[in-house]
Amino acid sequence: MAPRRSPGEQGQSLVEMALISLILIYLVMGAVDFGRTMFSQVVLTQAAKDGARKGAAYPNCRSTVSNFASVTTGSQNTTYNSIDYAVAQAGQRLNLGTSNITVTTYSYDPATGTRTAASAAAGGQIDVAVSYSYTPITPVMQSLIGSPTLTATATHLIEAAPSGC
Question: Which of these, 58, 49, 60, 66, lies nearest to 152 by C-alpha position?
Answer without folding.
Answer: 49
